[in-house]
C-alpha cells in the first residue's frame, strides 16, 4: 500500500451523525449522513447561495483539508498546467463545414476560455464572428455554452448558455445581420433548439423542477415565452424527451427514450400547427432512430432480436413498422453505432473486435466499402455532412500516440483529403510512444481489452506506475484516442491504460448487457482483472496502480475499493455515483426513473434491491484497509449530487482501519463537468494528476 508519509498528518473534518433508518422489502438500513442532502436541492442548483449553512460549512472544511494536504504540490500543479496548456494551440480553429452559401466553424482566441462561432463565404473569405463565448461569459464564476444553431435561411441563430453548472440552459436568438440578440428568451431548457423550415420559430425541450426534459414547446419569434405552444409531453418519468431536425429541414424528430427503449414522433417542419405523428409505439427493449434519405427514412434498430442493430428503410409517407424493409442485416458481434444518409450514399459507423470502422454503401448499386486503419488501437469519429446533396463526408481519426486528424472523404471517388492535424505547439513525436492492446482474462473466461500507451524509454519491469481508467456503464465506449493531458503522466514514466470493461459496448451489445442490472458486478471484476493483468504481464505492481473513473466510473471506483483494495495504490473518483441504492430509491432525483433500466428498480423489486445493496459503494464500506482515495465533485451537479461523495468520504473515514488519507475536493461554483472554460478545466486535471504523482513519489518538478 502507498506510504502515508507522503501526506502531512492533519486531522480530517469531523462528520456528525444523525441516523436515518429506511426499511424496504423487510430490510432496514441506517444512514448516518443523510443530513448532507439539502432539502432544498432544487433551489441550490439554481442559486447555490441558499445552501444550508451547516452543509456549506462542512463542504468548506473538506476543501480546506484537501488543500492543506495537497499544498506541497502547488508548484507541481502549476508545472503540469503549463505543460498541458503548452500542448494546446490557443488560437485554434476548426475547419469550417459548408452549408448553403456559408461555411460554419468554431475558434478560440489566445488566452480564451470559451469557443467562438464564426462563418465565412462557402468557398472561403473573411470570417464573420457570430458569437464570442468569452465575451458572453465575462465576469461569471461559471459559464458554459450550449449549442449554436443557425436557421435554414442563415439569417438567425439559436444559442444557449448555463451560468450555474446545473444544466438549466437559457436560449436566446441572435440576428446574424446585426449580430445582436432579439427579445426572444427561453429559460430552463436542455440547451438547444431546432428551427422550423421557415426560420420564424423553433422547437425546444423544457427541463422540469426535477431536471427532466419532458415537454416539447414551439416558440414563435417575437412572442413572449409564456405564449409558447406545448407540442408533446412525455408522461413517463423514466423517459427523456429530445428533439432534432432532418438534413432536408422538412421534418422534426421527437425522440422519447430511456436506456433501452425508444419512441419517435414526426412533425412537419413546414407547418407550425402540425400534430406529432407516431412512427412506432415503444416496446420494452426496442430502440430505433431515424435519418432522412429523400423519399425514405433509414432506421437503425435492434428490433426482432437484432441485438447489435440493423438498418431498415421505410417510405417517408408510411413510416410505420409494417413498411420497414431490411437494408443492412444484423450480424452478431458487429455493432452498428450510428448512420447517415445522403443523396447517393448510406453511411454507418460500426465496431467489430473492439475496433471502429466507417462503412459506405452506394444507394443505387448496393456496392459497399470501408474506411479503416491499421493501428492496434485507435478511434474514429463520423461527422458526416450537414448537406444532403453531398458526396463528401467528414471524419476524424486518432490513436493514443497519434494526434487527431480530420479528413474529407469523397464517397464516390474514395479520395481521402487530410484537412487538419491536431497541432501540439510544445512538440510531439509519435515515435517516442508505444500503444498496445492487451487482453486481460476475466474469471468467467471472457477477455477484457485494455488499451495502453507508454513512453518508449519506460522500463517494463514492474516498477512503472500506472493510471488505469475505467467507466463501464450505459453502453458507453471509452475510445483509444489521443490525449494531450495524459502525456504529462506518460512522460514521467507512467503507463496510461484504459480498461474496456463490460457495461460498455466495446465488444458488441452483449458486452453492455452483461455489465448492467443483475450482471453489474462484471464491470467491477473486469476492472480488477485488468489491474491484475497489468501486474502479471510485468508492466507495473499493485501498489503503483492508480485507478481513475468519473460519474458511473466513480461508482466503479467505489466498488473496486471495497472489493479489492489491495489491488490499487490509490483511487481517484470524480463526481462519483457511490450512493447507488439511496439514489435509486429516490424517484424525485433528476436521473432516477430513467436509470431503473440500467441499474434496476429497488422500489418495486426485492431482487433488484438485494443485488444493488450488495455492491453499492456507500453501503459496502467496511472495516478494512483502503488505499488513499480522492473524491472530486461539483455543488450544482444534477447528475451525481454532491452529497453522494460527501457521505461516502465521511463513512470511509469512520470505518476504515488504515491511516491513508481520504480527500474530498468540491467545486462550489460548478456541476457535473467541473470548471467551465478549457483552461480552468486543465487546472482541475493538473490537480488530479499531481495527486497521482504524489502517491507514487514522482513530485519532482
UniProtKB/TrEMBL annotation:
GO terms for molecular function: serine-type endopeptidase activity. Keywords: Hydrolase, Protease, Serine protease. Residues 1-23 are annotated as: Disordered. Residues 481-698 form the Peptidase S9 prolyl oligopeptidase catalytic domain. The keyword Protease applies. InterPro entries: AB_hydrolase_fold (IPR029058), Pept_S9_AS (IPR002471), Pept_S9A_N (IPR023302), Peptidase_S9_cat (IPR001375), Peptidase_S9A (IPR002470), Serine_Peptidase_S9A (IPR051543). Its EC number is 3.4.21.83. GO terms for biological process: proteolysis. Belongs to the peptidase S9A family. This is Oligopeptidase B. It comes from Phyllobacterium myrsinacearum. The lineage of its organism: Bacteria, Pseudomonadati, Pseudomonadota, Alphaproteobacteria, Hyphomicrobiales.
Amino acid at each position: 500500500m502507498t506510504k502515508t508519509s507522503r501526506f502531512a498528518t492533519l486531522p480530517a473534518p469531523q462528520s456528525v451523525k444523525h441516523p436515518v433508518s429506511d426499511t424496504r422489502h423487510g430490510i432496514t438500513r441506517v444512514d448516518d449522513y443523510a443530513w448532507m442532502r439539502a432539502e432544498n436541492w432544487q433551489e441550490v442548483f439554481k442559486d447555490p447561495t441558499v445552501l444550508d449553512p451547516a452543509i456549506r460549512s462542512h463542504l468548506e472544511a473538506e476543501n480546506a483539508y484537501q488543500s492543506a494536504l495537497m499544498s506541497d504540490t502547488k508548484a507541481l500543479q502549476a508545472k503540469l498546467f503549463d505543460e498541458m496548456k503548452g500542448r494546446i494551440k490557443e488560437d485554434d480553429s476548426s475547419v469550417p463545414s459548408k452549408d448553403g452559401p456559408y461555411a460554419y466553424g468554431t475558434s478560440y482566441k489566445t488566452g480564451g476560455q470559451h469557443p467562438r462561432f464564426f462563418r465565412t463565404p462557402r468557398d472561403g473569405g473573411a470570417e464573420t464572428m457570430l458569437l464570442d463565448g468569452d465575451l458572453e461569459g465575462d465576469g461569471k464564476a461559471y459559464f458554459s455554452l450550449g449549442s449554436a444553431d443557425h436557421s435554414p435561411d442563415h439569417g438567425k441563430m439559436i444559442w444557449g448558455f448555463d451560468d450555474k453548472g446545473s444544466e438549466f440552459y437559457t436560449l436566446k436568438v441572435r440576428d446574424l445581420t446585426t449580430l445582436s440578440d432579439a427579445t426572444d428568451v427561453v429559460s430552463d431548457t436542455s440547451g438547444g433548439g431546432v428551427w422550423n423550415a421557415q426560420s420564424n420559430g423553433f422547437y425546444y425541450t423544457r427541463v422540469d423542477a426535477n431536471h427532466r426534459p419532458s415537454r416539447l414547446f414551439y416558440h414563435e419569434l417575437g412572442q413572449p415565452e409564456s405564449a409558447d405552444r406545448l407540442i408533446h409531453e412525455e408522461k413517463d418519468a423514466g423517459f427523456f424527451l429530445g428533439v432534432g431536425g432532418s438534413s432536408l429541414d422538412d421534418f422534426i424528430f421527437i425522440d422519447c427514450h430511456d436506456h433501452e427503449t425508444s419512441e419517435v414522433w414526426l412533425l412537419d417542419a413546414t407547418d407550425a400547427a402540425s400534430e406529432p405523428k407516431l412512427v412506432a409505439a415503444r416496446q420494452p427493449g426496442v430502440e430505433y432512430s431515424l435519418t432522412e434519405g429523400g423519399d425514405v427514412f433509414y432506421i437503425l434498430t435492434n428490433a426482432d432480436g437484432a441485438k447489435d442493430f440493423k438498418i431498415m428503410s421505410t417510405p417517408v409517407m408510411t413510416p410505420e413498422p409494417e413498411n420497414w424493409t431490411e437494408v443492412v442485416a444484423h450480424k452478431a458481434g458487429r455493432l452498428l453505432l450510428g448512420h447517415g444518409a445522403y443523396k447517393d450514399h448510406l453511411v454507418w459507423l460500426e465496431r467489430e473486435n473492439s475496433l471502429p470502422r466507417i462503412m459506405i454503401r452506394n444507394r443505387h448499386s448496393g456496392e459497399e466499402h470501408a474506411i479503416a486503419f491499421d493501428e492496434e488501437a485507435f478511434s474514429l469519429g463520423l461527422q458526416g455532412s450537414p448537406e444532403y446533396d453531398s458526396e463528401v463526408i467528414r471524419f476524424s481519426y486518432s490513436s493514443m500516440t497519434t494526434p487527431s486528424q480530420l479528413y474529407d472523404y469523397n464517397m464516390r471517388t474514395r479520395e481521402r483529403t487530410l484537412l487538419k492535424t491536431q497541432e501540439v505547439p510544445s512538440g510531439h513525436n509519435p515515435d517516442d510512444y508505444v500503444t498496445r492492446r492487451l487482453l486481460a482474462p476475466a474469471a468467467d473466461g471472457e477477455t477484457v481489452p485494455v488499451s495502453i500507451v507508454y513512453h518508449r524509454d519506460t522500463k517494463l519491469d514492474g516498477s512503472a506506475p500506472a493510471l488505469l481508467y475505467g467507466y463501464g456503464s450505459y453502453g458507453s465506449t471509452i475510445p483509444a484516442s489521443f490525449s494531450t493531458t495524459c502525456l504529462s503522466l506518460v512522460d514521467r514514466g507512467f503507463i496510461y491504460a484504459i480498461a474496456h470493461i463490460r457495461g460498455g459496448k466495446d465488444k458488441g451489445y452483449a458486452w453492455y448487457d452483461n455489465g448492467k442490472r443483475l450482471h453489474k458486478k462484471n464491470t467491477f471484476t473486469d476492472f480488477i482483472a485488468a489491474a491484475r493483468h497489468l501486474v502479471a504481464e510485468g508492466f507495473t505492481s499493485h501498489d503503483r496502480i492508480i485507478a481513475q473513473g468519473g460519474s458511473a466510473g466513480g461508482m466503479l471506483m467505489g466498488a473496486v475499493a471495497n472489493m479489492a483494495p489491495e489491488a490499487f495504490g490509490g483511487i481517484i473518483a470524480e463526481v462519483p455515483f457511490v450512493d447507488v441504492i439511496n439514489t435509486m430509491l429516490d424517484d424525485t432525483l433528476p436521473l432516477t426513473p430513467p436509470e431503473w433500466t440500467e441499474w434496476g428498480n429497488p422500489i418495486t423489486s426485492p431482487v433488484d434491491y438485494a443485488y444493488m445493496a450488495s455492491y453499492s459503494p456507500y453501503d459496502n464500506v467496511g472495516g478494512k484497509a483502503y488505499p488513499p482515495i480522492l473524491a472530486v465533485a461539483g455543488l450544482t451537479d444534477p447528475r451525481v449530487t454532491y452529497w453522494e461523495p460527501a457521505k461516502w468520504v465521511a463513512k470511509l473515514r469512520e470505518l476504515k482501519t488504515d491511516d491513508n488519507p481520504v480527500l474530498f475536493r468540491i467545486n462550489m461554483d460548478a456541476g457535473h463537468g467541473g470548471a467551465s472554460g478549457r483552461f480552468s478545466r486543465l487546472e482541475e486535471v493538473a490537480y488530479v494528476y499531481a495527486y497521482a504523482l504524489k502517491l507514487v513519489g514522482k513530485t519532482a518538478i
